[in-house]
Amino acid sequence: MAELVNKVAIVTGASSGIGYATAKLFAEAGAKVVVTARRRAELDALAAEIEEAGGDAVPVAGDVRDEALAEALVETAVGHFGGLDVAFNNAGSTGEMAPVTELSVAGWREAIETNLTSAFLGAKHQIPAMIARGGGSLIFTSTFVGYTVGFPGMAAYAASKAALMGLVQVIAAELGAKGIRANAILPGGTDTPMNLANAPGAAPETRAFIEGLHALKRIAAPEEIARSVLYLASDASSFTTGTALLVDGGVSINRT
Question: What is the extent of the structural domain holding 119?
Fold first, then answer.
């Protein structure tokens, strides 16, 4: 595997789940990675794993809602590794779950800040560094929720994640001539801490219900989603931009 040799990548939300799996896969593919999340201990452990496997990683802990972190990540990529080629703006949160009429304004704003504003802040600072390298690939984590399916109680999450597609399309249109590509993955149910089946107190039958929503009758391993991110990061997707890539196990089309 050598799809990202001589590339430098940023991965947000890297302390667990899809971000963790993607950071490791990027490193295996030859990229030097800057990883971020709020949990420093987990980031340090991830960086150590990558280094032990012969890769290069620098952890930078922080909150993606903070513009100073977006700047620091790019500065770290440029300062440590010489530039920036790939950014996986993956960090996000399910946020407050409630019917629209009961959803708090604070919960709404938190979801928008975490899932949408953070992606904008990341892109704002990543793009100039990519232009300096002659181009690059921006990848965002959206979701099928609010794109092909509406789940009750998930208004803030769905709205914030669906809005990412507008950002993706504008970046793609604005910057394609400068070699910048922008795309989003839309995962289905994935075995991560954010999955509702893994929530504290979740009923045993919850996982079976979630699995049954998918055409494949299972949920994904984070590594499966990471492989689709790698595709969008690499030159294998060199003519792909402005897209919503469903990696959802058929949950969007399943009616059985």
Answer: 8-247
